[in-house]
Write a structure and sequence with these properties.
This protein has about 150 residues and is α+β, with helices and mostly antiparallel strands. The protein has a domain at about 50-145: Trna Endonuclease, Chain: A, domain 1 (3-Layer(aba) Sandwich). Helices cover about 25% and strands about 30% of the residues. The chain contains three helices and nine strands. The strands form three sheets. The protein has a five-stranded mixed sheet, with helices on one face.
């Protein structure tokens, strides 16, 4: 269970995310020892994903919604769901609404691959107690497609 007190604001970029060693938006750590941690991470390849340009564009929308008071917070890749043996699905964003509900948002660019659409649909059916949304950036605007 995610506690709303576990969500912090990055001192560097202002993004709200779960408390952790790095901000998922800007990749920077919270404190003065950041340079030491960066050197350590460069020695060991990280398995943590970084946002692509479409995800970053949507994170900017969510950050604006937090600032406008429309949502409480959001987290990049905050949950991972097991769909079958050796098959998982990680929604792009976990969003906390004003009434403390959890929404899971998946974002896509101009083209949605069939396997991505299928994983989204399976996860939505297997875990119906979340609100699921898929948004697509196409021709300069966001459209909810799922």
């Amino acid at each position: 269970m995610i506690n709303i007190d576990d969500i912090i604001e990055c001192p560097h970029c202002g993004a709200k995310h779960l408390n952790g060693p790095r901000c998922p938006r800007c990749g920077r750590g919270p404190g003065a020892n950041e340079a030491v941690r960066v050197e350590e991470e460069q020695q060991q390849p990280s398995k943590k994903a970084r946002m692509n340009s479409t995800e970053q564009r949507y994170a900017d929308v969510l950050a604006w919604r937090v600032h406008a008071g429309e949502i409480k917070a959001f987290v990049f890749e905050g949950l991972k769901f097991r769909l079958a043996d050796r098959t998982t699905f990680t929604p792009d964003f976990l969003v906390i609404t004003l009434d403390d509900r959890v929404e899971l948002h998946e974002v896509k660019g101009g083209w949605v691959r069939e396997d991505a659409w299928l994983k989204f649909k399976i996860a939505r059916e297997m875990y119906p107690y979340f609100s699921w949304q898929m948004h697509q950036w196409k021709q300069g605007e966001w459209t909810q497609i799922g």
